[in-house]
C-alpha cells in the first residue's frame, strides 16, 4: 500500500493562539507543526462527522466518541458484533438513538484502523495504562 505524501499549508494565527500551540507542543514534546497538523485533521473529522467528538486518553492519544455520550466508537462496533449485527439491539444496549449508532458506524467504516487501535487501548487495565487504583 502506497503512503500518501504529506502536503504543506501556511496558516496565520493570533498571537494568543500561537502561544497555546507552542505550549501544547512543549507539553507533548513535539513540534508546533505536528500539533497543528493533528488539530487540523481532528477539526476536519469533526466537521465531516458532527456526531463524533474526541477525548484525550491516559496515554496522550485521542479516542473517538459519540458526541454528548460517554460511548467510544470502538465500543459501538464491539457491541454491534456482540448483538449479531442487530443495530436496534446494539442501540438499546448502549442507550443510543439509532441515528447516533449509525453515525458512529460511519466513522468506524472510514477510520477502521484507528478504531481497532482504540479498541485495543480501551480494553487495557488501569495498571497497563500506568494508572494504579488508589488505596482507600
Question: Could you please describe the fold and organization of this structure?
Answer:
The structure is a single chain. The chain is mostly helical and 136 residues long. The protein has 2 domains: 34 residues; 74 residues, Arc Repressor Mutant, subunit A (Orthogonal Bundle). 53% of the residues lie in helices and 7% in strands. It has 6 helices and 2 strands, in the order H-H-E-E-H-H-H-H. The longest helix has 17 residues. The mean pLDDT is 89.
Sum up the structure in keywords:
mainly alpha; Arc Repressor Mutant, subunit A; 2 domains; 6 helices
Question: How do the helices and strands line up, and which of them pair or pack?
Answer:
Layout: H1 15-27, H2 32-48, E1 52-56, E2 62-66, H3 73-82, H4 87-94, H5 98-110, H6 112-122
Antiparallel strand pairs: 1-2
Helix pairs in contact: 1-2, 3-4, 3-5, 3-6, 4-5, 5-6
**Strand order of the main beta sheet, please?**
1-2
Approximate strand percentage = 5-15%
- Give the distance, in angstroms, between the N- and C-terminal Cα atoms: 51 Å
Give the fraction of residues assigned to helices: 40-55%
Name the helix and strand elements from N-terminus to C-terminus, one letter apiece: HHEEHHHH
According to CATH, the fold-level topology of the largest domain is Arc Repressor Mutant, subunit A
Provide mean pLDDT, rounded.
Answer: 89
Structural class: mainly alpha
* Main beta sheet strand tally, sense and closure: 2 strands, antiparallel
Calculate Rg over CA atoms. 18 Å
Number of helices: 6
Shape: globular
CATH class of the largest domain: Mainly Alpha
DSSP E strands, number: 2
* Reported CATH architecture of the largest domain: Orthogonal Bundle
Amino acid at each position: 500500500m502506497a503512503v500518501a505524501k504529506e502536503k504543506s499549508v501556511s496558516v496565520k494565527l493570533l498571537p494568543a493562539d500561537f502561544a497555546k500551540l507552542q505550549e501544547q507542543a512543549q507539553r507533548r514534546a513535539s513540534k508546533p507543526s505536528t500539533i497543528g497538523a493533528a488539530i487540523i485533521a481532528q477539526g476536519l473529522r469533526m466537521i465531516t462527522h458532527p456526531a463524533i467528538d474526541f477525548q484525550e486518553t491516559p496515554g496522550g492519544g485521542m479516542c473517538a466518541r459519540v458526541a454528548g455520550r460517554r460511548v467510544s466508537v470502538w465500543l459501538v462496533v464491539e457491541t454491534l458484533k456482540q448483538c449479531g449485527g442487530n443495530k436496534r439491539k446494539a442501540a438499546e444496549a448502549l442507550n443510543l438513538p439509532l441515528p447516533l449508532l449509525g453515525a458512529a458506524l460511519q466513522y468506524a467504516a472510514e477510520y477502521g484502523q484507528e478504531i481497532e487501535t482504540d479498541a485495543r487501548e480501551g480494553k487495557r487495565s488501569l495498571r497497563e495504562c500506568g494508572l494504579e487504583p488508589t488505596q482507600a
